[in-house]
Amino acid sequence: MMTNPTGRLTQGQFSFLPDLSDAEIALQVDYGLARGYAWSIEYSDDPHPRNTYWEMFGMPMFDLKDAAGVLIELGACRRTFPQHYIRLMAFDSTRGVESVVMSFIVNRPEREPGFALERQEGAGRSMRYTLRSYAADAPEAERYRR
Amino acid sequence: MATAETAVSDDLATAKRKRYAAGVLKYREMGYWAADYVPKDTDTVCLFRITPQDGVDPIEAAAAVAGESSTATWTVVWTDRLTACDSYRAKAFRVEPAPNAPGQYFAWVAYDIILFEEGSIANMTASLIGNVFSFKPLKAARLEDIRIPVAYVKTFKGPPTGLVVERERLDKFGRPLLGATTKPKLGLSGRNYGRVIYEGLKGGLDFMKDDENINSQPFMHWRDRFLYVMDAVNKASAATGEVKGSYLNVTGATMEDIYERAEFAKELGSVVVMVDLIIGWSAIQSMSNWCRRHDMILHMHRAGHGTYTRQKNHGVSFRVMAKWLRLAGVDHLHAGTAVGKLEGDPLTVQGYYNVCRDSVTRTDLARGLFFDQDWCDLRKVMPVASGGIHAGQMHQLLDLFGDDVVLQFGGGTIGHPAGIQAGAVANRVALESMVKARNEGRDIRNEGPEILRTAARFCTPLKQALDTWGEISFNYTPTDGSDFAVTPAASN
User: Fold this and answer.
1) Nearest beta carbon to residue A13 from set B269, B425, B435
2) Residue A50 and residue B440: Cβ atoms within 8 Å?
3) How many angstroms away from the CA of A80 is the closest CA of chain B?
4) Which of B279, B434, B453, B478 is most buried by its number of CB atoms within 10 A?
5) pLDDT tens string for chain B (492 positions)?
6) Cis peptide before B58, with omega less than 30 degrees from 0?
């Protein structure tokens, strides 16, 4: 377990709240759809804060207009990767934004072992820092096994 | 035909002889007043609020403002005739009484694009707010708003990072960012200072912040601060799995000092550095270039602005400062809280936020915006709300400012009765609850307090925060509100 007040990875919009139910997730998806965002599902077993590219579970759902469709895809992703981090992301293609505008975690591994902070001492008391995910010590396919 | 042409040119010569005869002319007669002038798309247009001395005609006063902020001197000079002088004269073209302010007038003045060096706020401000504000025939003058032509906007690079790319770098989307200023401002050693940073970030804040007057005083050398702060930032990042930052204030006595401090911040892996407004325009643009070269977010603390932005009758409006700072290129800008301890009425403050974040800012008199301003895809500035705000106001803050803002709770984090981490948790839970509720379609402006109380049931630190600060508000009359009441007509 991680030692921050939530005991878990705090990336995303809602990590400090109790896990969202599927009904609550659908409301967030609706909010994004009403604004013309495209939803996509990504999963990863390496939650390093600078691991930008989680795996895509299919393409972004550009033409999908119903939250139920996103929930169906999410269900499929959860069944395939029950012990991975899964996040929902909304993209806004408006000129001047053209980026992610919502992102929250909807699935977590049972145990979240967190990160080691490695320090490499340099000259003049300066320090180089490296963050290492404990889970990522295991080979790719063997992380977060029960 | 020949005779007629000769007559016309004789008239012109006579007119010019009279215009440039030695002596003192009224400004309006020198070409600084042009009632029929239609500003060109390439002109800069300024709106001044002027208070002429008793007995001074408002049109003459407006012409004087145009003159003194462009080419004029107090007397006629023959050397004008060596130049295409009409180009260089700013032209006042409209004057009207300011609403509900006896003795004050709005004056619109247009400036040709040749007047300003490309990409230089220093040059533009040297004209527009140079001599003119000390001019004796005016009791007071204030630059209320400015329309900067697209052609001139494109000579600036703008924010080095911009709020969209900042979010991508930080991997934080769909909610305001959370910060806190380390307190007490003065006296903490580097070691103690880093403790506050660590607790705040680990508790759930995205950013911590040096205060504006933390530079390198006897109690804490800047290198010491940077070293301890970066240890805290990295430890908190490991504890949460999030990218964290702390605005390292690199403000120093000289540009060399500033660069030296920024380089060290970069070596230590900071994602952000900070400067104070008081370092001046040229230094700000230099630091903007430095940040662009080094993938660094540039945080701007507007220290000192209140000395010239606050009084309604004299100085420069903050909306003008925000426009200049977006051009000069800062990523974060303190732009007011509306509900906190520092000056600003809600609509006026929203006007500043629009200037920071819009692609095109539209005229909106109720928000103090007198012009349309096309930003030509210039990156957007992340506004910062800081000063006397707390978790109990989360619904108001989110409702007023939306997602693209850094909400900074200094006292509201560090002063939490159960400690700094608890303070951070309270703020983060309040924020996430409110964003979630808003997205679910709830009316947060009215249901906000109830949403917070519900969240406090599963979050003791939030309950403690609400019990401590829930009733605190700063309700004083702003000195700088809009001149235009909010009516259906004004909001068109």
Assistant:
1) B435
2) no
3) 24
4) B434
5) 445 555 566 677 677 777 777 776 788 888 999 999 999 999 999 999 999 999 999 999 999 999 999 987 777 788 888 999 889 999 999 999 999 999 999 999 999 999 999 999 999 999 999 888 888 889 999 999 999 999 999 999 999 999 999 999 999 999 999 999 999 989 999 999 999 999 999 999 999 999 999 999 999 999 999 999 999 999 999 999 999 999 999 999 999 999 999 999 999 999 999 999 999 999 999 999 999 999 999 999 999 999 999 999 999 999 999 999 999 999 999 999 888 766 678 999 999 999 999 999 999 999 999 999 999 999 999 999 998 899 999 999 999 999 999 999 988 899 999 999 999 999 999 999 999 999 999 999 999 999 999 999 999 999 999 999 877 666 666 677 777 765 443 333
6) no
CA B82 from centroid of its chain's CA atoms: 39
Residue A113 CA neighbour count, 13 Å, CB half: 18
> Can you tell me the distance from the alpha carbon of A106 to that of A46, in angstroms, rounded to the nearest whole number?
15
Cβ–Cβ under 8 Å, residues A47 and A11: yes
Given the cut 0.90, state whether the ipTM is greater than it: yes
A109 vs B: CB within 8 A = no
User: Residues 54 to 83 of A: which have CB under 8 A from any B CB?
Assistant: none
Indicate the pTM of the whole model: 0.94
- Whether residues B242 and A11 touch (CB distance < 8 A) is answered with yes
B269 vs A contacts (CB less than 8 Å): 128-129
